[in-house]
Design goal:
Layout lengths: L5 E7 H10 L3 E2 L1 H9 L3 E12 L8 H9 L3 E11 L5 E4 L3 H10 L6 E5 L6 H9 L3 E6 L10 H6 L2 E4 L4 H4 E2 L7 H4 L11 E2 L7
Parallel strand pairs: 1-3, 1-6, 3-4, 4-10, 6-7, 7-8
Antiparallel strand pairs: 2-9, 4-5
Amino acid sequence: MLPSARIALFIDGANLHATARALGFDIDYRRLLKEFQSRGALLRAFYYTTIIEDQEYTPIRPLIDWLGYNGYTVVTKPTKEFIDADGRRKVKGSMNIELAVKAMEITDRIDQMFLFSGDRDFRPLLEAVQRRGVHVTVVSTISSQPPMAADELRRQADVFVDLAELKSKLGRDPSERPAPREMRQPPQIGPRGPTSMNSRNDF
């Protein structure tokens, strides 16, 4: 990869979390950002996740607050819990469309896109982005049982990187937690902070 290559990261938060857990480690998002800043000109690191409506506290809130202050553009959308016909608790909601729309909007401003997801639904997006001359790398895993990366997504990508190979670079020591001062650090690469799906974001 050229040092001048313009890079954007698109992180499917729930999918990446599940993939890392399947591999037995947690992601250190500060290390992740530094890793990809070293690979080119990182223009944006988007993190997409849903938040359950009407829930006073959600375990993901500290993470998304931290990400918003430490170099990520966080995009959230409310989702709802419901009980299905079998009495099982389900959560309805996806950020796939929001992620795809933003990716298509910025294809003329980037040279390479990294998609952190193994969801097969993103295959048409990869194909469309590639037609516009963007090199696409998918980061997921086939090392878990079952594999987290769909075969059709791997085949469509220009490059597939198994997250297991990045464990030494991106893994977080379970004893480590963001210090309060880290929560207050100013943004490092452009406008930051959690944004809702209907907030204006020029890039």
